[in-house]
Amino acid sequence: MKNIEYFKPTTIDQALRVKQEMGREACYIAGGTDVLVLAREKKLDCRALISLRRIPELAGISLQDDVLHLGPATTLTDILENGEVARELPILHDAVQVMGSTQMRNMATVGGNVMTAASSGDTLGPLLCLDAVCRLVSPGGERRVPMDEMFVGPRTTAAEPDELLAGLEIPLPAAGGAISSGAFFKLTRRAAMDLALINVAVQLWVNPDRATIAKARLAAGVAAPTPVRLKQTEEELVGAPVAEATKEQVAIRAIGRECRLRDSDRCSAWYREEMLRVLIPRAAALALERMGIAV
Amino acid sequence: MKRMIEFELNGQQVTAEVDGGDLLLSVLRDQFDLYGVKESCGAGECGACTVIIDGRAVTSCLYPAMEAEGRSVTTIEGLAQPDGTLHPIQESFIEKGAVQCGFCTPGNVLSAKALLDKNPDPSEQEIRTAIAGNLCRCTGYHQIVEAISHAAGRKS
Ligand SMILES: Cc1cc2nc3c(=O)[nH]c(=O)nc-3n(C[C@H](O)[C@H](O)[C@H](O)COP(=O)(O)OP(=O)(O)OC[C@H]3O[C@@H](n4cnc5c(N)ncnc54)[C@H](O)[C@@H]3O)c2cc1C
Ligand code: FES
Ligand code: FES
């Protein structure tokens, strides 16, 4: 890329203003680990980059009234090292831990992962299971979009071109004394630096009896053109004995009804299905284990 | 659009004229003759271009030069003393046979330095995680892991 203008706004308003003036010719860059790979492949058509790295309002993690506010420009390393995320959101901690390499995690941001909206994006299943909410801002104002409505097509989000992802809000699963935990698994050909062949996220809430399920969230990546929640299965699990979530039969039914597996040059649909059958029950079992419930 | 930026490079304040599309990798090589910063994949996959910015290892092939402004950048050339005395990590790499063709070595040494500066007594797993983004076609990694844990012992 040559003759590119590079803006380093320090407030959200400045960033929006530049974007408004330049329109499609400008594109946001956070960690750059997707943007610069696209640029290298000459698939990025822009004359200006608007950096989100120096906007304090966009980065950082804070807890307020049982809601974790996750700045979209927070790096994966900062998420990985955050104690509250490790304790309250193991499902997200698991995912960040197996993303890219140390160097990638030092640069890449969670907001970049959301806005790239790849079906393989490892934070997306966890954010879906946590019922995260995206705060989108534009010169016209702000709106809140549930994560579940963000992924509208392959690598496409519900955000308008002039909208900036300004915040991610995650209600703590264990708020108000609820009993909940989650887990994430990713299948790759090698241990590091690999995109998922398939990934699975499960968050479970159990009733005070610790024997039945109060609420369930299941999501899978690379199982359809976008990350998907397995909603029918989530509903069927409500009220069921906890062990139900760990049954292969339940996974098989979910895959058949709610996934659209495909062959790709990285792996076959058949293999993806076989592995989903293993990983969905495994993630559910680990979530239960983290609540001290043996199945 | 070219602009002058100022940053700290291997302990010295420097200025450079860079375009918004320039990568730190090419600025370090072409303007500062720091050929220890290697380009291999150019896409974040191999770690050959690793540098340390404000204490964290990053791949300079995916780092906009403009972002270096006001920050502190360390390349392999910044590790040895001015009189040529090598850094303990470099000594350990030589001693443990962790250098063969040498192409991955600057990146591996810098990943090791970023790790040890933060965590002076890492476990083997922590060492392996720190260098997971640094590919080596020669050594089979064992010697690199050994060199890093040796360097950790030596420093403490
Ligand atoms: C070697 C390598 C390994 C990788 N491994 C993984 C992996 O294991 N798992 C995985 O999921 N991904 C992986 N990725 C992909 C990438 O690192 C992630 O998607 C990362 O989270 C992107 O974040 P970023 O900050 O670098 O995004 P950027 O490249 O800066 O931005 C990505 C997109 O989001 C937009 N954007 C960013 N922030 C905002 C915002 N706040 N508001 C509006 N738009 C915004 C940008 O305009 C751009 O379109 C890997 C990439 C590389 C190069
Ligand atoms: S050249 Fe930068 S990671 Fe390979
Ligand atoms: S020594 Fe040759 S690539 Fe590592």
Question: How would you describe what is shown here?
Answer:
- Chain A is globular.
- Chain A is α+β, with helices and mostly antiparallel strands.
- Chain A folds into three domains: 47 residues, Uridine Diphospho-n-acetylenolpyruvylglucosamine Reductase, domain 2, CATH 3.30.43; 116 residues, 2-Layer Sandwich (Uridine Diphospho-n-acetylenolpyruvylglucosamine Reductase, domain 3), CATH 3.30.465.10; 112 residues, 2-Layer Sandwich (Enolase-like, domain 1), CATH 3.30.390.
- The longest helix of chain A is centred in the C-terminal third of the chain and has 22 residues.
- A five-stranded antiparallel sheet of chain A has the order 4-5-10-6-7, with no helix packed on it. Chain A has a four-stranded antiparallel sheet with strand order 11-12-13-14.
- Helix content of chain A is 32%, strand content 25%.
- Chain A starts with a strand and ends in a 5-residue tail after the last helix.
- In chain A, strand 8 and strand 9 form a beta hairpin.
- Chain B is α+β, with helices and mostly antiparallel strands and 156 residues long.
- Chain B has two domains: 76 residues, Beta-grasp domain (Ubiquitin-like (UB roll)), CATH 3.10.20.30; 65 residues, [2Fe-2S]-binding domain (DNA polymerase, domain 1, Orthogonal Bundle), CATH 1.10.150.120.
- Chain B is built from five helices and five strands; from the N terminus they run ββαβββαααα.
- A five-stranded mixed sheet of chain B has the order 2-1-5-3-4, with helices on one face.
- In chain B, strand 1 and strand 2 form a beta hairpin.
- In chain B, helix 2 crosses helix 5.
- Chain B is globular.
- In chain B, 50% of the residues are buried.
- The mean pLDDT of chain B is 96.
- Chains A and B meet through helix 2, strand 3 and helix 6 of A and strand 4 and helix 3 of B.
- Flavin-adenine dinucleotide sits at the interface of chains A and B.
